[in-house]
User: Which sequence fits this backbone?
C-alpha cells in the first residue's frame, strides 16, 4: 500500500554553489529558463577569494535573483566568504563534505564539484550545518584558543618534569605535583644554581616537610648548568602561557556576558565547571530553535547510538560519525569526573561500565549530561534537580529483576504467573 511521504518536493528556483579554495573559488548558478518551460540555465565561473572580489560576486548573484548559496565546509578558507555573503543578505548554507561527495567514476574539478553541489542543493537533498551567530562565534574562538594554550602548557610541564631525570634528580617521585608551591620552588632554586640537596629539601612546605629526608635523597644527583638552562626556559614559557590564559579568561567572561545567566545555570550541574559551561555554550550556542528536543541535540553532537540494520537483522549500533572534538572533550571529562560521585550520571556510568566497558560508559554518560544541559537553555525557569544515585533502582531496578527471574524460569519450560502480594 502506498502511503503519503513526509517530505515535500520543492525545487529551489535560483540557487548557487561554491567550491572554495585558498586563492579562488568556483561558482555555479542555476536559474529557470524563461523561454523553455522546465529547463534550467546554468553559469559556471571562477572568482578570487580576496575581499575586493567577493562583494562583486555577491552583487552578481543578487542580480540573478539567487536566494540560497551552498558551500562546502572547508576549514578556514570558507569563513570569510561565508561572512561576506551573510552580510549581503543571502541564505547561506554550510554543508558537510560527506553529504556532497561526487559520484564515483566521474572527473573531479572545482567547477564540476560546484555544478554537482548546485544540482543537489536545488533539489533540497542537503542539510545545512549549524552556524552560530557572530557573538557565539567570537566566544568559540576564545574558548578553543584557551584549550590550545592549556594543552601547550601541559606539554611544557611534562617536559620540565622529565628533564631532571637525566641528572638523576627525582623530585616527582616524592612530590606529586611538581608544579605546586614546593616543587616549583625547588625547580627555581636548581635553575638559580643551588645544588645542595639539604637546602633544596628545606624549601618543602606544609605536608611536604614530613618527607624532607626522602626529598634529600631524591634531590641528590648530577645537575649541571646544561640541565639548568632548559628548565629555566620551560618555566618561563609556562609562566607566559599562564598569563595568556588569564588574559583569555577575562575576554571570555566579557564575551559570555549576554548568556551569563545560562553559564551560571549550567554551572549548577555537578562536574560542570565555569570553564566547561563556557565551552558548551560556545559550541552549541544559545538558540535551541535548531534543537527542539534533547534528542536533536545529542544526535547533532554524535552522541546518540547509530542504527545499522540489513536484511531485517540488526548488526549492533552503527557509526555515529565525527564528533565535535571540543564539545566531546568537555563532556568526556565531566563524565569521567561524575563517575566517582554518588549522582545520577555517576550511577549511570557504573551501570553501563559493568556491562559494556568504560569507553561506552563515558559516551553514554556524556550524552546524559548533554541532555541535562539542554533543559535550562530553552526554558528560563528550568533548574537542575538532583535525582540521586538510587534513581535507576527505584524506577527500573524492580522491573528488570522481575523480567530476569521470569526469563530464567521460562527457559526450562515453566509457565510463570505473577500474583502481587496483599
Assistant:
Amino acid at each position: 500500500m502506498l502511503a503519503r511521504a513526509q517530505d515535500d518536493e520543492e525545487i529551489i528556483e535560483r540557487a548557487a554553489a561554491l567550491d572554495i579554495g585558498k586563492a579562488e573559488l568556483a561558482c555555479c548558478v542555476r536559474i529557470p529558463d524563461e523561454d523553455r518551460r522546465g529547463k534550467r540555465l546554468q553559469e559556471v565561473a571562477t572568482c578570487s577569494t580576496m575581499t575586493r572580489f567577493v562583494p562583486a560576486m555577491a552583487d552578481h548573484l543578487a542580480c540573478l535573483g539567487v536566494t540560497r548559496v551552498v558551500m562546502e565546509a572547508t576549514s578556514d578558507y570558507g569563513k570569510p566568504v561565508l561572512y561576506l555573503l551573510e552580510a549581503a543578505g543571502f541564505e547561506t548554507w554550510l554543508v558537510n563534505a560527506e553529504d556532497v561527495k561526487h559520484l564515483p567514476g566521474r572527473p573531479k574539478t572545482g567547477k564540476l564539484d560546484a555544478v554537482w553541489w548546485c544540482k543537489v542543493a536545488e533539489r533540497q537533498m542537503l542539510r545545512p550545518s549549524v552556524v552560530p551567530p557572530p557573538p557565539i562565534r567570537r566566544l568559540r574562538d576564545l574558548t578553543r584558543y584557551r584549550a590550545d594554550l592549556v594543552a601547550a602548557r601541559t606539554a611544557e610541564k611534562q617536559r620540565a618534569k622529565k628533564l631532571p631525570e637525566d641528572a638523576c634528580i627525582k623530585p616527582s617521585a616524592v612530590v606529586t605535583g611538581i608544579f605546586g608551591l614546593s616543587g616549583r620552588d625547588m625547580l627555581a632554586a636548581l635553575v638559580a644554581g643551588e645544588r645542595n640537596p639539604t637546602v633544596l629539601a628545606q624549601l618543602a612546605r606544609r605536608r611536604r616537610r614530613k618527607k624532607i629526608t626522602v626529598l634529600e635523597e631524591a634531590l641528590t644527583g648530577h645537575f649541571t648548568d646544561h640541565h639548568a638552562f632548559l628548565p629555566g626556559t620551560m618555566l618561563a614559557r609556562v609562566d607566559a602561557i599562564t598569563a595568556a590564559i588569564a588574559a583569555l579568561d577575562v575576554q571570555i567572561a566579557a564575551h559570555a556576558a549576554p548568556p551569563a545567566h545560562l553559564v551560571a545555570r549550567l554551572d549548577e550541574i555537578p562536574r560542570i565547571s565555569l570553564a566547561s559551561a563556557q565551552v558548551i555554550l560556545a559550541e552549541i550556542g544559545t538558540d535551541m530553535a535548531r534543537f527542539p528536543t534533547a534528542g536533536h541535540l545529542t544526535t547533532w553532537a554524535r552522541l546518540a547510538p547509530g542504527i545499522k540494520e540489513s536484511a531485517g537483522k540488526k548488526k549492533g549500533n552503527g557509526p555515529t560519525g565525527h564528533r565535535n572534538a571540543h564539545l566531546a572533550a568537555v563532556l568526556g571529562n565531566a563524565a569521567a569526573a561524575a563517575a566517582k560521585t554518588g549522582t545520577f550520571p555517576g550511577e549511570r556510568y557504573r551501570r553501563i561500565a559493568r556491562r559494556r566497558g568504560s569507553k561506552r560508559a563515558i559516551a553514554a554518560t556524556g550524552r546524559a549530561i548533554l541532555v541535562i544541559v539542554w533543559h535550562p537553555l530553552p526554558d528560563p525557569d528550568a533548574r537542575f534537580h538532583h535525582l540521586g544515585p538510587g534513581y535507576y533502582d527505584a524506577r527500573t531496578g524492580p522491573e528488570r529483576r522481575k523480567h530476569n527471574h521470569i526469563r530464567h524460569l521460562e527457559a526450562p519450560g515453566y509457565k510463570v504467573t505473577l500474583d502481587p502480594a496483599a
Remarks:
- The chain has a mean pLDDT of 83.
